[in-house]
Amino acid sequence: MSEERLIELETKLAFQETIVEELNEIVTRQQQQLDIMQSAIEQLNDRLKSASEETVMEPAQERPPPHY
To answer: What distance in Å separates the CA atoms of residue 58 and residue 52, rounded to the nearest whole number?
Structure first.
C-alpha cells in the first residue's frame, strides 16, 4: 500500500471520527429536548385532567340555564 493511500485512509478515518462525535452530540441534545417535552406534556395532561375534574358537576348539582 502506498504512503499516499495510507495518508488518505487516515484522513478519512479522522474525518469520520469527528462526524460521529458531532452526531453523538446532536443525538444527545435531541434526547434531552425530547425528555423535556415529554415532561411538559405529562404536566399539561395532569393539569388538564385536574381542571376537567374540577369543572364537571353531577347533573343534579348543575343549575338550569338562565333562560329557563
So the answer is: 13
Alpha helices (H) in 1-68, listed in sequence order? 3-55
From the list 36, 13, 16, the residue with the least C-alpha distance to 24 is 16
The low-confidence residues of the chain, meaning pLDDT below 70, are 56-57, 59-60, 68
**pLDDT tens across 50-67, in order?**
887 777 667 667 777 787
The set of cell numbers assigned to 14 is: 479522522
What is the DSSP annotation of 32-51? HHHHHHHHHHHHHHHHHHHH
Distance CA 14, CA 4 (A): 15
